[in-house]
Amino acid sequence: MKQHYLVRLDDACPQMNKQKWQRIENILDKYRIKPMVGIIPHNEDPLTCIDMADTKFTAKALNWQKKGWTIALHGYNHVCTTVIGGINPVHKRSEFAGLSLAEQKEKISKGYKTLITMGLTPDFFFAPSHTYDENTLKALEEVTPIRGISDTIALQPYKQGVFTVIPCQMGQFRKPPVGGYWTFCFHPNGMPDDAFDIFEYFIKTNLERFISFSDIDMSKVGKKSIVDRLLSSVYFALRKMKG
Q1: Using CA atoms, how far apart are residues 50 and 52, in angstroms rounded to an integer?
Q2: Is the pTM of this model over 0.90?
Q3: InterPro entries in the record, alphabetically (predicted)?
Q4: What CATH number does domain 3-242 carry, 3.50.30.40, 3.30.1140.32, 3.20.20.370, 3.40.630.30?
Q5: How many whole angstroms separate alpha carbon 198 and alpha carbon 212?
Q6: Per-residue pLDDT tens for 109-139?
Q7: Which of 46, 83, 143, 239 falls 20 to 30 Å from 26 in CA-CA distance?
C-alpha cells in the first residue's frame, strides 16, 4: 500500500498565536499543501488563548477556505468537563464523551451555526483531546450535514454509519512503518521555533507523498478492515498498559 500524507492543524481561533500560525501557513503555501484546519467556534480554553482576540480572524479563516483548506468544526468551547475517553480513548478527558445527547446536540449545533455565520462550510468534525462517543456521532448526524470525522487509529479511511472516518495517527512528522493514509496533527500555538524548520524539511524531502483531504475519493471508502480493527485494539491495549 502506498503512503499518503495529510496535515491537520488544531486549535484555530481568534486568540491563537498569530505569528506561529502565519509561519505554518507560509510553509504550507510555499509547497502548495492544503491541510485540514480545526476551528474552535467559541473558545473558552485558557491554554489556547495566546494572543488578544484577532478582529480579522473571520477574514483569515475565509481565506483558508478560499485556498482549498478543509474546514473542520473543532468542538465548541474546547473545555473538557469529563474524564471519559469514549470510542477513541486517546486521553481520559473530553468536551463531549459522557455528556447526554441533548447536551452534545446543543454544543454541536451552536458551533456549526457559528462557523456557518462566518461564511465557512465545515465538512469535518474532530473533538478536543480526540475524544468523543456515540452520542457525538448521533448529534452530528441530527443537527448538521457534517459527515466527515478526523480521528481514530487505522491505516486507511473507513465508513462508520453515515460517516467517513479519516484516521489521525501522528502528533509529529516521522516516516510511518507501513503504507496507508497518515494524518499528522499539529498544534501551531505550542510549536517551538526549531519545530518549524523540522516541519518544512520533512515536507520538502517527502513532498510527493502529501495529498489534500479533498483528494480522497469518499465514494470508494468501505467498512473498517479486519487489519485496522486489530491495529486499533492493539494500540489502545498498549496505551492502557502504559497508563
Answers
A1: 7
A2: yes
A3: DUF2334, Glyco_hydro/deAcase_b/a-brl
A4: 3.20.20.370
A5: 20
A6: 999 999 999 999 999 999 998 888 999 999 9
A7: 46
